[in-house]
Amino acid sequence: MNSIDPRALFSLSYGVYILSTEFEGKKNGQIINALIQVTSDPICIAACLHKDNYTTELVEKSRRFSVSVLEESVPLKFIGIFGFHCGRDFDKFNACSYITGSTGLPVVTDFTLASVEAKVLSVIDVYTHKLFIAQVEAAKALKEGKPLLYADYHSIKKGKSPEKAPSSIFNVLK
Fold first, then answer.
1. What is the DSSP secondary structure assignment for residue 145, as one 8-state letter?
2. Tell me, what DSSP letter sits at residue 147?
3. Which helix (H) or strand (E) holds 49?
């Protein structure tokens, strides 16, 4: 690890999103920053989640998830609902506004610029995390605005990463 300077990794660009799912009436979601579009025909995305997270468990069972793209003005307190509470003990959807998307998935609408709904095609084990490759089934722009970048979450909002986040290594830079 001595040859890895976390500042170099911090220069990679990420957004901040809420990834949600539902399985057998149980809704849950979490903050993620590891999300990319990987193909355009068909449109596929990849999302990375920690193996121990409740959302990961539900996505594996449901094989579907939604993504809410957060706007730059989202309050840190709101991010905390989905970033620092466990859905096994706390109903995050009672603390926000959401709709049921066209595929039946919950989509958080508070502070959200756009939503994407996807079905999981494959899951790749990556040490402490699982990488979900999914095909987009629906996408909708909800309002105009600037998306929250992960670097701004740290530099402007002074937010930290949860211990299980892929980017928790950046907390040492605070």
1. -
2. B
3. strand 43-50
Q: What is the pLDDT along the chain (174 residues), one digit of tens a residue?
A: 579 887 787 788 899 999 999 999 999 999 999 999 999 999 999 999 999 999 999 999 999 999 999 999 999 999 999 998 999 999 999 999 999 999 999 999 999 999 999 999 999 999 999 999 999 999 999 999 999 998 888 777 766 555 555 544 544 554
**Tokens 């539902």, residue located:** 22
Q: What is the 3-state secondary structure (H, E, C) of 52-95?
A: CCHHHHHHHHHCEEEEEEEECCCCHHHHHHHHCCCCCCCCHHHH
Query: What are the extents of the domains in the chain?
Result: 6-156
The CATH architecture that domain 6-156 belongs to is Roll (2.30)
* C-beta of residue 49 within 8 angstroms of C-beta of residue 30: yes
C-beta separation of 161 from 171 below 8 A: yes
Q: Which residues pair with 120 in a beta bridge?
A: 134
